[in-house]
Structure formats: structure tokens, C-alpha cells
From TrEMBL:
Residue ranges occupied by any Fumarate lyase N-terminal domain in the UniProt entry: 23-304
Pfam families the record matches: Lyase_1
Annotated GO CC locations: cytosol
Recorded GO MF terms: argininosuccinate lyase activity
GO biological process: L-arginine biosynthetic process via ornithine
Organism: Ignisphaera aggregans
Full protein name: Fumarate lyase N-terminal domain-containing protein
Length: 471
């Protein structure tokens, strides 16, 4: 008979059990569940709690599940047509099937609550590292574009209106800075993911004093003590990353909206890769930037996952509740959406080109240099800035419309040509400092690459230690 936790509760019904079972969604957690169990079993052996004669089959089975990323366990479930509440019940049942009485030892010093809390930290850590690696690549291609289009002028907007003009480098460097900051938010949370809940029991600890250092070494976790009620009853780390992913997608969505707006407002100014464009079923002239439209929609989905998780969490008494299971699902979905979106965005930016002539044509009759003009006149004449501002404002007001004729008239008052104001714009301190700004960004990117490489190397070393027995 297959082990079930509810064996003495009585019969169940398929549709009821399906309602609260997370087994199908837990597939992505299976290798982590086996890895944590493997570390636990090795600790029991090391401390003489589990007899060695009962360990070989269990250790071999767990290693196999880790190496097949859960495939072995789920094939066994499918072949036996078994029902389980989750991957943790399925894993223990499988080990009982493989090792019989020997598997009875694995329940000591642990509960499903501290097991899942540990598994989720390992899963989240891997997913966060994946996002961080993709953000590094996104930042790289943004810096490539900032370098490539440094000599191109483009408009910058406030309140939905053209405000100033400047080098396209500023635009791409601004987004690189945004994603650099979010990368740091992701990195800061890694400390929470190194917490080790094993040994916390269901809520207030276990009688068995597990060797935390031994376990920590195999799972890349801290050996520091944490309050057991916190370890099993908090999902702060999950909410932290759901909200950070939401912030990431907010910024990604704004970039997507920029691309759509510029494409529509200034035709041919940005030229996206053709694979990111679709056309109409009835209007053959249409060129729809479909990937960026889906990016906007996916940003809303991730925001929804974060908000739904907080709504689930806020009303729960402290301690483990099965409601947490639904947060697990939302966290998995958020990572899936974010990772697929970053893949698309990296490809989009890497092959994006800018048409400098289209931008110049658009800004030719637009005084996106008015603030620079005011400052320049004030600095060269010694007059107060506000006095010059009011003079220029009055000149604009006197025009029937702000067009090329109006612009030339205003500039002639100050003895300037349109070429003069473009020279003023291009000689602003920020434009002169763009090269240094980009150099600093490249240095920061390389430093972050080294940080994540060290994290990955450390994790691989721990995994090798975990799988070192049996040979």
C-alpha cells in the first residue's frame, strides 16, 4: 500500500483532492525537494540517527531524482496513477516504495513545513540568479546602443510633450541605470535566501539537534540560527521577490510603451527587428509592434501576481497555512513571465536601430532647446535667469504658432541661428561627460558579472558536495 499522510482519515474524492493538491505544479520543485531530503538524510547518517544499512537505496534514489530534475519521481507517480497532496508527500511515498522500512527514519528532525520553506528558498535563488544573468545581458545591449547612437539627437518628453533634445546615449544609459538598480535589489535579497529553515519542525523546532553546518555546506545555506516560527511561518522572501519582479516589469513596460509611442509619433525613427512586428488581417499597411504590446500586458500580469500574493498573505495568522501553496504558484508564474519577457527584450534591443534623420526632421520645428537657450543667454549676458525666461516666453507668445518661422524670429533677437542652438545643446556638460558615464557603467557591469559568477561557482561547489555520495 502506498504511503499517504491521510491514510487513517478515511476516503477522499478525486475532485476534492484535486482542489487542494499542488502535485502537478510542484514538478519544478521536485529536484529541490530531493536535494533538501538528500542533505537531511546525509546529516542523519553523519550523526548516526539513521542506520547505514538502510541508506544506500534512499541516497541513490534521491540523487537520481536530483539528476533527472524530478523526472524519476513523476514517472513513478504516473505509472502508479497515485494521488498525493504535493511533491513532498509523493517523495516520501516513493522512498518508502524504494527502501521500505529504511525510509521510516527520514521523518525525524524535520517536517513538511521546514522542508518546503527550504525548497522554496533554493528554487527562488536559482530563478533569481537566472533573472540577474539576463539583466546583465540586457544592460550590456543597452550600453552597446548608448555607444552606437551617441552622435544621434532625439527628443525627450515630460507631460507627454516634447521637452528637451539630447544624445540618444542618455536614453539608453538611463534604462541601463534603471536595470542596474533593480539588479542590486535582486542581489540584496539573496541573504534571505541563504537562511536555513531545516530543523525548525512545523513551528517551534525538533527534538533532534541537526548539524546545521553540515547541511549548510551541501545546500549553500547559512548555518546561523533563525527562529523556527519565522522559518516556517514567513514568506517574506517570496513577497520581496514578487514585488521586485513587479518593479522590474513596470520599467520594462515603460520601455515598451516608449518604443510604441516613438514608432507611432515619429515614423521610421526607431526600427525594430522585423520578427517583433506583425500586420493586420485586413489592413496591409499596418506595422504593429506586437512583442512590446505583449510586454505591457505581461507587466500587468506580474503586478497582479504580486498583489494577489499580498492579498493572500495579509489575512493569515502567523505560522504555516496551506494558503502559502497558492503564493508558491504565483511566484513560479511570475518568474516564468519575467524570464520569457527578458529573452524577448534582449533580442529586441540588440537588433534595434535608430534613424537619426527621422528624429532631426521631427525636431526641426520644435524648440526642444528653449531651456538651454534661456540658460545660455543668462550666462553670457549676466542677466537673471528668470528675466531671460520671461523674455523668451513673451516672444513665444507673440507667435501665432510655434513653427520654423517663429523659431528663426526668436533666435534672431539674440543673434543666434538654429545651428548655434544645436551646438549649445551638444556642448552641455552631460553630453561632454557621456563617454565617462558609459565607461563607469561598463565597469559597474563587469563588477556585477563577477559577483554573479562567484555566486554560481559557490552553488555548483555545494551541489557537487551534496551529490558526492554515493559515487
Amino acid at each position: 500500500m502506498t504511503l499517504r499522510y491521510r491514510i487513517y482519515l478515511g476516503n477522499s474524492k478525486d475532485f476534492i483532492e484535486s482542489y487542494f493538491s499542488s502535485l502537478e505544479g510542484d514538478k519544478v520543485l521536485a529536484k529541490y525537494a530531493a536535494a533538501v531530503m538528500l542533505a537531511h538524510v546525509k546529516a542523519l547518517l553523519d550523526q548516526g540517527v539513521m542506520p547505514k544499512e538502510h541508506s544506500k537505496d534512499i541516497l541513490n534514489a534521491l540523487v537520481e531524482i536530483v539528476k533527472t530534475e524530478g523526472g524519476t519521481l513523476y514517472r513513478w507517480v504516473a505509472e502508479g496513477k497515485y494521488r498525493f497532496e504535493d511533491v513532498f508527500e509523493a517523495l516520501e511515498a516513493y522512498l518508502h516504495d524504494v527502501a521500505s522500512i529504511g525510509a521510516g527514519y527520514i521523518a525525524i528532525g524535520r517536517s513538511r513545513n521546514d522542508h518546503i520553506a527550504t525548497v522554496l528558498r533554493l528554487f527562488t535563488r536559482d530563478k533569481v540568479i537566472e533573472v540577474m544573468q539576463k539583466l546583465l545581458e540586457l544592460r550590456r545591449v543597452l550600453l552597446d546602443k548608448a555607444t552606437e547612437f551617441r552622435s544621434n539627437l532625439m527628443p525627450y518628453f515630460t507631460h507627454g510633450q516634447i521637452a528637451q533634445c539630447g544624445s540618444a546615449s542618455i536614453y539608453f544609459a538611463s534604462y541601463e541605470q534603471i536595470f542596474s538598480n533593480i539588479w542590486r535589489l535582486l542581489a540584496q535579497g539573496l541573504e534571505m535566501l541563504s537562511e536555513n529553515p531545516l530543523g525548525s519542525g512545523a513551528a517551534s523546532g525538533s527534538v533532534l539537534n541537526l548539524n546545521r553546518s553540515y547541511i549548510a555546506k551541501m545546500l549553500c545555506l547559512s548555518d546561523a540560527l533563525t527562529p523556527p516560527y519565522y522559518s516556517t511561518g514567513s514568506r517574506l522572501f517570496a513577497l520581496y521577490y514578487l514585488n521586485t519582479l513587479s518593479l522590474l516589469m513596470l520599467e520594462v513596460s515603460r520601455f515598451a510603451e516608449d518604443m510604441i509611442m516613438l514608432s507611432n509619433l515619429i515614423p521610421n525613427s526607431v526600427n525594430p527587428p522585423v520578427e517583433h512586428i506583425a500586420t493586420s488581417s485586413i489592413m496591409p499597411h499596418k506595422r504593429n509592434l506586437v512583442t512590446m504590446e505583449i510586454v505591457r500586458a505581461n507587466a500587468s500580469k506580474v503586478m497582479g501576481y504580486a498583489m494577489a500574493s499580498q492579498s493572500i498573505y495579509k489575512g493569515l495568522p502567523y505560522g504555516y497555512n496551506l494558503d502559502f501553496q497558492e503564493i508558491n504558484a504565483l511566484l513560479r508564474q511570475a518568474f516564468d513571465v519575467v524570464n520569457s519577457t527578458l529573452d524577448v527584450l534582449i533580442d529586441f534591443v540588440a537588433r534595434l536601430s535608430i534613424n537619426g534623420d527621422a528624429f532631426l526632421k521631427y525636431i526641426a520645428d520644435k524648440p526642444c532647446w528653449s531651456s538651454e537657450l534661456v540658460e545660455y543667454i543668462a550666462m553670457t549676458s549676466g542677466k537673471p535667469v528668470r528675466e531671460v525666461y520671461l523674455t523668451v516666453a513673451k516672444l513665444f507668445k507673440s507667435c501665432n504658432s510655434v513653427d520654423e518661422k517663429c523659431i528663426l524670429k526668436i533666435l534672431s533677437v539674440f543673434g543666434l541661428s538654429i545651428q548655434d542652438v544645436w551646438s549649445i545643446v551638444k556642448s552641455k556638460p552631460v553630453e561632454v561627460s557621456v563617454k565617462k558615464l558609459l565607461e563607469d557603467a561598463w565597469i559597474r557591469l563587469e563588477r556585477d558579472r563577477n559577483v554573479i559568477k562567484n555566486v554560481i561557482d559557490f552553488a555548483e561547489k555545494c551541489t557537487a558536495e551534496l551529490l558526492s555520495y554515493p559515487s
